[in-house]
Specification:
Arc Repressor Mutant, subunit A, 144 residues
């Protein structure tokens, strides 16, 4: 990139290209603008424009985040919820997305993680599954 200041429109174009590649949230965009050394005073306006033009959408992001964390990383509800809250997303969207979890996949994940730790002591296995974000009740129900 050239050694010149970008205009607000150029920053917006750059952010739109970033958001077009995959789902992001406002916190991701703000972090990226900071990494790119964009002027701090334009962040709010750019994020607002991204929402207006549907490059950012909290419901869509939450759904994708939940799906990916369950499908690819075998996270439990608690860890997923904490991750979404850390990104400062609306609680209503977080709850909606968590309600859409595929229960069959979720239980298969728990079963798989349980089997991976079969040789561990019960206490160590329990700690591991709690750290992955599964609730104590989910783990106990499964272990019986």
């Amino acid at each position: 990139m050239e050694n010149r200041e970008l205009s607000k429109a150029e920053w917006l174009d750059k952010c739109e290209a970033y958001c077009a590649k995959s789902e992001h949230c406002a916190a991701d965009v703000r972090r990226k603008l900071y990494e790119w050394a964009a002027p701090a005073e334009i962040s709010d306006e750019i994020v607002e424009n991204l929402y207006k033009n549907d490059f950012l959408n909290d419901a869509r992001f939450c759904h994708a985040y939940v799906h990916d964390k369950v499908a690819y990383q075998s996270w439990g509800r608690i860890k997923i919820q904490a991750g979404l809250r850390a990104l400062d997303l609306p609680e209503s969207e977080i709850r909606k997305s968590l309600d859409e979890i595929d229960e069959k996949q979720y239980k298969l994940n728990l079963q798989s993680l349980f089997q991976q730790r079969k040789s561990d002591s019960e206490e160590k296995r329990l700690r591991f599954l709690l750290q992955r974000g599964f609730t104590y009740d989910e783990i106990k129900k499964f272990c019986k």
